[in-house]
């Protein structure tokens, strides 16, 4: 048998110089002074598949060829009727993470199986190569793309054939929860008069451990100078052109110059926080501000005791993660 002539294996990239390390966010990423980004966990990706246990199928779609914005779609194959839709935005400080990662693939797939829902898990451009608001711009493009299927004539058959577009939920964790809030705000100001939203109704949003920030300390932040400095650095890396810094409405929806929360484009909201999360007091403040605002919807909160930021992505089988999943499923089922 004739032997195949394979190209030689390329040599591994040269090691990065630790003396040029600018920001160490291990185990997530490292940023170097020359602008090099080392994303430590993003290589652990999995292909789309059909899960024989849950019966959830997945596939990848390109939403915008120019920007590279894409999504992984999840569909429970054991269905009889049209299903609610979850549009999910992954976390990662706007700088890392992927819908194709093993963690997010597993989490969103499990959510679909337990909630009996279709999901669109959005992949947006990452900072610092693509500074904020690129992530928000791509997420809005994805939301509009999904909404274009509400008349059953969009480019993706899974959405045309299987989704109840009157039962749409936006969800996300950390930076993805931040994006989720801003998508609901933008939808609130446009969907009623935008022909692209005909037949498409965002009924609820789920914010999991939202990445909100600000200049004035909130709660326990006052005693955590190092933590505050780190969050300031993360935001500065993600959005270096921001003139308002950590009080930019993109990261601080409670800032004085931020749009009023009464404009949130849904009628239900679930804000999930974790007891040991350094960002938890921001989520609690958002819940209180939304509850006290002139928004006409209903907001609920759910707290995971003894757990830290996005713990469910690292410990998906723990009791706290199962409790969080159960609460999300209940919320989606009631839409």
From TrEMBL:
- The active site lies at 174
This protein's source sits in the domain of life called: Eukaryota
Instruction: Return one GO MF term.
Output: hydrolase activity
- Among the Pfam families in the record, one is Abhydrolase_3
Question: Where do the Alpha/beta hydrolase fold-3 domain residues begin and end?
Answer: 86-313
Tell me the InterPro entries matching this sequence.
AB_hydrolase_3, AB_hydrolase_fold, Carboxylest/Gibb_receptor, Lipase_GDXG_put_SER_AS
Q: What's this protein's name?
A: Carboxylesterase 2
The record lists the organism as Acorus calamus (Sweet flag)
Give the encoding gene's name: CXE2
């Amino acid at each position: 048998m004739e032997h195949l002539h394979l190209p030689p294996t390329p040599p591994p990239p040269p090691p990065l110089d630790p003396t040029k390390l600018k920001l160490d966010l291990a185990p997530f990423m490292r940023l170097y002074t020359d602008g090099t980004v080392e994303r430590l966990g993003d290589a652990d990706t999995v292909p789309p598949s059909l899960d024989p246990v849950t019966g959830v199928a997945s596939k990848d779609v390109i939403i915008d060829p120019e920007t590279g914005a894409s999504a992984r779609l999840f569909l429970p194959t054991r269905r009889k009727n049209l299903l609610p839709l979850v549009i999910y935005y992954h976390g990662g400080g706007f700088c890392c993470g992927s819908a194709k990662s093993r963690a997010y693939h597993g989490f969103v797939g499990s959510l679909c199986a337990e909630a009996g829902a279709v999901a669109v898990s959005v992949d947006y451009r990452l900072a610092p190569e693509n500074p904020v608001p690129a992530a928000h711009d791509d997420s809005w493009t994805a939301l509009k793309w999904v909404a274009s299927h509400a008349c059953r004539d969009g480019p993706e058959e899974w959405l045309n054939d299987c989704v109840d577009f009157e039962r749409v939920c936006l969800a996300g964790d950390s930076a993805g929860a931040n994006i989720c809030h801003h998508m609901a705000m933008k939808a609130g100001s446009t969907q009623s008069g935008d022909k692209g939203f005909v037949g498409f109704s965002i009924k609820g949003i789920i914010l999991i451990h939202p990445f909100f920030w600000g200049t004035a300390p909130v709660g326990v932040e006052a005693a955590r100078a190092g933590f505050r400095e780190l969050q300031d650095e993360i935001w500065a890396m993600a959005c270096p052109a921001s003139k308002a810094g950590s009080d930019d409405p993109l990261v601080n929806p409670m800032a004085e110059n931020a749009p009023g929360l009464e404009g949130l484009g849904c009628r239900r909201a679930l804000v999930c926080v974790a007891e040991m999360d350094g960002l938890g007091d921001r989520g609690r403040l958002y819940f209180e501000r939304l509850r006290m605002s002139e928004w006409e919807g209903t907001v609920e909160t759910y707290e995971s005791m003894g757990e830290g930021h996005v713990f469910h992505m690292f410990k998906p089988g723990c009791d706290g993660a199962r409790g969080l999943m159960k609460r999300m499923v209940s919320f989606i089922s009631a839409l």
